[in-house]
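Entries read chain and fold; for instance:
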Amino acid sequence: MQDLFSIKGKIAVVTGGSRGIGEMIAAGFLGNGARVYISSRKADVCEATAKRLMDEYGGECIAIPADLSVVSGCDQLASAIAEREGQVDILVNNAGATWGAPLDEFPENGWDKVMDTNVKGIFFLTQKMLPLLRKSATAEDPARVINIGSVDGIKTPGFDNFSYGASKAAVHHLTRQMASHLVKENIIVNAIAPGPFPSWMLSAGVGFGGEVEGADWERVGKSNPRGRVGTMQDIAGLAIYLSSRAGAFTVGETITCDGGAVACS
């Protein structure tokens, strides 16, 4: 029971790990003894985040930039990790995009960008990572895949982000379908549906212009049932639960991490 939530020594891959929720999960994994690979499209930002996380939390964090909206980028990331590791214990599919525009003006490229990153990218990266996940997976200690959805895929979004909400609903259903196939191979798939967290994406949506540091998150949090926005401990704690022995019998679920936003909607 003392090691119920342990992920020490695990090898984890966190996409979209250079900022926001992905960075929070990567930090939590590092602080609890995992070796972490983070990926994002911008190499310099990814490298800077990896260095900052190691300076703050210790451990080993490796940056591998990739564009996961295209299958070739998924191949590239999986191949780069396979050159360094014999297996992967935890895959967190967090890389995502959003687009906002009124219904009458919503553009095709805004639809395609979001769907390609948020849905296609999750499916094909997981597919390309299966050989590494299978090498980790055992009945006693399954490999884990965690897909990051959103409360916007459960309740009606507050913003005109039509492709985003639809993409996250697709992620939740895809999670359940993938879980039904992979549980037989000792690979457990679940999803997290976050609510408001201090991130570039939410900052842009609420009018802070993408600024995270110094933004008035207290004001944003007042509209949440818990009276605040989420913290690193909130999202990392749930990801660690799903990645540890504690979560080994939780399969195909979409778990909200939203301070009660869905329950009270």
Observations:
- Strands lie at 11-15, 35-39, 61-63, 90-93, 143-148, 187-194, 254-257.
